Structures are given as C-alpha cells and as structure tokens.
Amino acid sequence: MITPDTWKPATPETTAEAPARPGPLRLATQLVRSFGQLSLLTNVWTGVLFMLAVFVGNWQAGTFGLLGAVVSTAAAYAMGVERRTIDLGTQGFSGCLTGIALYVFLGPHPSTYALTIGGAVVCVLAYSALTAMVAPWRLPVLTAPFCVVVGVVLTAAPAFTRVWPGGSSAALPLAAVPGVEYTWSDLWHGFFANISQVGLSAHWYVGAIMLVGLFVGGIRHGLAAVVGSALAVALSWALGAPPAGVAAGVYGYNAVLVAVAMGGMFLARTVPNALYTMVAVAVTTVLTAALNAYFAPFGGRTLSWPFIVTTWLFLAAAASLPQIRRTD
C-alpha cells in the first residue's frame, strides 16, 4: 500500500524507532514538516523554508496554517494514528493547507478560526478514509483530504451569515480583460507564482523562497518544479490564457505539483518517464482551466483537484504501460 508517508525513500532519520512520548523538538519537527509537505517533501529544511515563505507572504496566513497543522497533529495523536505518518508531517499538512485556504477565502474572522480547528480534525479522518479507498490501486492520498474539507466548507459558507461576510471572491483571479497582451513581467511573475500558489500565495518572492526549499529537498525536485512551472507558463501563453491569471499562478500551480510528484518521486529516472511527466503537466494545466470554469458559476474553488486527478490517472495508467516504471 502506498500512502503519502512513503513519498521519500526511507532514511535513518525516518526509520529509527520513535520515542514513546513526543518531545518539544519532535513536535517542532512534525509541524515544520507539515509545511514542507505542501511540496510533498519530508526534508526538515524544506519545511523551514516553506514555513518562512508562507509567513513572509502573509503572517496571518502563516498563523492559520500553523494553527491547522497543530490541530491536525494533536488530533492524530489523540486518535492513535501511526506515529511515523505524524513524524513525516503527512497528518499535519492538510490541516495546514486548510487553515491557509480558509483565511484566504473567508478572512481572519472568529468563525474562520473555528472552521480551521474543525476542518483540521476532519482532515485526519479524511486522510485515513481516503488511504483505505485508494490503497487497492496503489495510489497516494496527496492533497485530497484538504480539497474535500475546504471544498465542502466553501460551498456551504454562503448559507451562513456569520461565516460568509468575510469571504473573498478575488483571492485567486481567474480571468482578465480579453485582448490584453502579455508582458515579460506576466511571464516571469507567473513562473514563480506557480510555485507560490502551492501555498495559496500570488507573491513571486514567496515562490522564489519555496523554489529554494525544493532544491534543498533534492536537486531532482527543484528541477521538476522549474520544468513544470516553465511548461505551464508556456502552454498557458500559447493557448491564450488571461495574462493576469497566468501572472498570479492560477493556471500553473497544479502543474508544479504534478511535476514534483511524478517527475521527482513516483516515477523512475528514465526518458520515457520524463516525457510522460511532461504530458501530465500539460494535461493538468488544461484541466485546471476546465475546472476553474466548472466551479465558477457556484463560487466553488478548483484548489488542487487537477493535481490529484491527473496524478491518480497517470499513475494508475502506468501499470499498463511497459515503458513507464514507478519507483515503488
């Protein structure tokens, strides 16, 4: 069975027998890794840089992300979840993303704190349930718990007046004025914003910090993110996507995640696998635009569903393709 806790090869750090009780250093490492898992990596220094990037982009978003990570980690302990998955940050990262997303879309209101706490707890349950559901196909859970929980909350939010007044419909711009020409600034901002949107930020400098974190986690991961982001920008430009959306990273963040997951983790280092990953990047870029249009009429959010759907599709298909080899 493959789950997110197997995203990286075992190391002495991750295979050593865990102490009976969590100490302050161990808890801090779990929380830092919860941020690092936004990029699917367990490297502690990647986590430090990703946490730094989120707080640099918006300290309130970082605070909500930390709250979500703390609650999810505590809930996992309370529910007796396997300690190794907690140590690798795979129990905390969905709660972390949930806190960031709810702040971005609903604002820093008392109800958002309550929803972050409740959502972070449900993320732990969703993680366990989804792990069992996708196990027969040897698929990873990825960010599905976050997407399910936040998707439900945001869809229901307009029905509750104490929740929705702080909501923002412009947090991630999806369209621009037709006919507006691209500028060089749109393209290079988009390259870095594709990476920063992994943490729901459109600031290019946040993406730059996260890219450093990816390279710290491994040269292969950093290069995968670079290629994935560049391909997404090039394809978005070629297809005539709105420049403002491209510059904000709306069309490319799922492509970055697909590139890192498939090009940096789940597939072996072969030429056919590299080409296969590039096709997946192109597919998820187009799928992102399609799901943006699908969710727009009722105020839904695409989140990282294109990444999940594309990765599941291509990893499941790999079993029937002799030239495509998985690492597990």
Mean pLDDT: 88
Radius of gyration: 18 Å
Strand content: under 5%
Fraction in helix: 55-70%
Runs in which pLDDT lies below 50 for 5 or more consecutive residues are 1-19, 166-177
Helix- and strand-based class? mainly alpha
Total strand count, please? 0
Shape label? globular
Number of helices, where a helix is a run of at least 4 consecutive DSSP H or I residues? 15
User: Span between N and C termini?
Assistant: 10 Å
Q: List SSEs in N-to-C order.
A: HHHHHHHHHHHHHHH
Sheet with the most strands, sense and barrel status: none
Write the layout of secondary structure elements.
Layout: H1 12-15, H2 24-36, H3 44-57, H4 59-78, H5 83-87, H6 93-106, H7 110-134, H8 144-156, H9 184-196, H10 204-217, H11 219-239, H12 243-247, H13 253-266, H14 271-295, H15 305-318
Task: Note the main attributes of this structure.
328 residues, disordered N terminus, 65% helix, 15 helices, mainly alpha
Please characterize this protein's 3D structure.
- By secondary structure, this protein is mainly alpha-helical.
- The chain contains 15 helices and no strands.
- The N and C termini lie close together (10 Å).
- It is 65% helix and 0% strand.
What would you say about this model in short?
The chain has helices spanning 12-15, 24-36, 44-57, 59-78, 83-87, 93-106, 110-134, 144-156, 184-196, 204-217, 219-239, 243-247, 253-266, 271-295, 305-318. The chain is mainly alpha-helical and 328 residues long.
